[in-house]
Specification:
Blueprint: H1 6-21, H2 25-40, H3 45-68
Helix pairs in contact: 1-2, 2-3
Length: about 70
């Protein structure tokens, strides 16, 4: 299993906090899952897929809001 640099966990942690601050809770939860996977040395493939899905859902919601304006 590949090892990931410590910065990967730090970046996931920052994304988690930033997402919570703007109310993107699914993104925050998924980033937290990625953070945990990286810090535990687990394979992050599933966590990355969940983060990608959460970000896509957030982008879709933002696009819908912007179209209503």
């Amino acid at each position: 299993m590949p090892s990931y640099p410590p910065i990967a966990g730090e970046l996931a942690h920052k994304l988690k906090g930033s997402a919570r601050a703007i109310g993107a809770f699914q993104v925050a939860d998924a980033a937290g899952g990625l953070e945990t996977a990286v810090l535990n040395g687990d394979d992050p493939v599933q966590a990355l897929a969940e983060l990608k899905d959460a970000v896509e859902q957030a982008r879709t919601a933002i696009d819908a809001i912007l179209r209503r304006s």
